[in-house]
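Box S2. Input/output pair 1.
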Amino acid sequence: MKNLPELQDVNSDLQFASQIQIDIDRDKASTYGITAEQIKNTLRSAYGSSQVSTIYAATNEYQVILELAPQFQQDINALLTLYINSSTGVAVPLKTFAKLSQGVSPLMVNHNGRMNAATISFNLAPGVSLGNANEEIEKLINQVIPASISTSFQGASQVFQSSLPSLGLLLAIAILVIYLILGVLYEDFIHPITILSGLPSAGFGALLTLIIFHVELNVYSFIGIILLVGIVKKNGIMMVDFAIEAQRNELKKPSEAIYQACLVRFRPIMMTTIAALMGTLPIAIGFGAGSESRRPLRIAVVGGLVFSQILTLYLTPVLYIWNRGGRSLVKLSCGGCSHLQVGDRCIRKYRPLSRNGRISPKRGIKGIEGNQLHHFVNDPLPSGGVHPAHVHEWNHR
């Protein structure tokens, strides 16, 4: 891992030290009447500093510690000269039935759950994202680590891998919930799409800003993108809501209504956007304690707001006109007066419009232009019109 250019300061909690292994020939030791328990007790007495007795004086007491002299404890050859008392009382040298070998072993054995574990820590090289570093580590694990050894990420790497897929699902659920709520409020499936049309530009602006400032897409920056969903849709709501009211109350064409909405709502849209930018800009620059962790979030919010603000005033009106298809709402009241009525709320259903401008119970009215509308408003219905017991709503082009 130290050779990976994406990583630096690679360390491990696994520390090794040299050790001496004693291989005992049990069959040969048994011929001398020596057991493994006797060998263990002798080695513990020689190197374990065990207390074997206590000397009591008149005013004090002294502990008797049995061990080898310090100059012999560090000498491997002195180990072979140890004598083991057999069951027959004969002292037998250790080298008679044992062999020594040098090796290494960990000073401390750590555990993860019930398994022995070693932790390798690292820092990211400048300009390297955590996702790229994890990918390189996984490639190295597949090439070097055998299948009998299991590996897993811990700390920030584990949080990144576990949270990133769920954040994508969270973003999709948030957009879906907002779409459903807007659909219920406007009683339409198209207006929510128009309102949410600024979200792709906001997400693109956030990602582009992160790339420009060399900031990785982590949990904090992803949360900033989710925050953009609530901030950006506000601009679309103000314009679309105003345009719908202008079409219903003033009988404006969709293009005229959305144009007026852009002019009237431009100042409140800019005021709220600038207020949000000014609130997030200090953290995006990096002021304050702990700003390193919050900086990706604010950079994503600032970049998304600026980019979406530029495109929303152009993209949302275009989609509104396209979704409306040049249609505006007109009401027909047939409750006995047999005249067209404008501005009343529909209490039955929408009617399709015919191309020749005539009214029929099956097709309704189509092709009525703005100048033709006033001609029909105060004129009686043609023969074969809608039954007086019904009240309908339809659209005119």
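Box S3. Input/output pair 2.
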Amino acid sequence: MRGAVVQTGTRKYVEYEEDDEFDGHREIKTQGREKNMAQALLSIQIIPKVNPGEEVIPYVDEAISIIKASGVPYRVGPMETTMEGDLDQLLDIVKQMSAAMIERGSPSVLSQIKLSVDAKANASMARLLQKYPDGQ
């Protein structure tokens, strides 16, 4: 049994019963048995300009560590990283990533972003990847 959708203001939650079983869609019980449903998916390819002789990989690793530290569900791909969550939070993460690149010494940062916003707060990487969970 999945649980009932509950809306308070503009935020939607899923309320679970104690005996619910989860199907691998990263749904996690919280103390109040509520989970904020994802409003958006954001894929980003961050391309910091580096100084001559400098490698770009440490910059990209730092950008990914910012995503990881945020606690949002994410998936690293060979050309971009996709995050799932609240739109404002995802955009704040992008700002943090760009600022970190500048702080590290990059003179400029180019980011290519794909954004999917779901009015029903039903964005899910797991749902979109059900048919190809391993990318094949």
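Caption for Box S3: Strands lie at 4-8, 11-15, 34-36, 40-48, 74-76, 81-85, 109-117. The chain has three helices and seven strands.
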